[in-house]
Amino acid sequence: MKSRLLMMLAMGFTVGTVLVACGEEPDGDEAPEEDEGAEEDGAEEDGEAAGDVEEVTDMQLGTGSTGGTYYPLGNEMATVMNDNVDYDDFSVSAVSTGASVENLASIGQGDLQLGMSVHLPALDAYNGEADFDGNPVDNFGFMGHIYPEVMQIVALEDSGIESIEDLEGADVAIGPDGSGTQEAARIILEAYGLEEGDYNEYAEGFGDAANRMQNGNLDASFGLLGLPNTTIEEDLGSQRDITLLSVDEEELTDIEENSGYEGMTIEADDYSFLDEDVEAVTAYAILVGSTDQIGEDLGYEIVKGLYENTDEVSHQQGEAMDMENIMNGSNDLPLHPGAERFFEEEGLLDE
In CATH, which of 1.10.357.20, 3.30.428.10, 3.20.20.70, 3.40.190.10 is domain 149-283? Predict the structure, then answer.
């Protein structure tokens, strides 16, 4: 599953290696020549000169597949930013992508300026682990929490699948390559002893998977989504008899001990088709931004314009985008300098 992403990362790594060999930093910044000009342009406290940012004001926000939560919510976020960010020539367009891992890799390559991501792949990217093994992405910063993501494993009732163990031999959508859904799906399946080849996997977004399930061409699908999800309730649930698969206590303990995902309960009244609570895993959806193409002032205005106007977001998951939750998912991640200034002004950073 990693081939396309690793190719993207490897290209950047190769360029970085050549630059290092020529006496330059891997991110393309020229190595300083003695102390000449070191104090010019007001160098940041961390030593990064303002001139290091090749600012882009006509930018793209990487979201996810069209049937998931990221794409519609990301489009609303882009609209709020376009209406409220006070910065010359600023504009942002939301684009459909493979979600978390692809968004982070694309920011690393300079192809995206903003991205939505599960916070755990963002940690992997920063630390050069998992999908980013040996190829860390260090040119991004945390800009704010978006909403809690919940892994929802949907199965057709007439498939005979009643548990995650029953997915062995089934046709299962595990999310697009480069998505947080696929990463989490594999973690859950492996906790049950199910490896690649034990099930027929389809690397597609939740919207496409839901359509295939409606047509009876797919048994089950994983989706790291907001709760509740309208595609599950209104589209799929209105056409077919479906159920959500629960993560058992033993496997949940294993998942919590070996990943950053945490357990949570989907309550029976979250969906009309549920008769009892379902145990699931959860993580945070966050906004990240390039530190190569978004300077401190622009980053500040983006965070300010978005998070001071989240009442303009009509999507249900936008309700979690408030000052009380804005730092969720930021632990151990670098803060974008502009976001950090905003957080400091709001008194959100520990002294």
Answer: 3.40.190.10
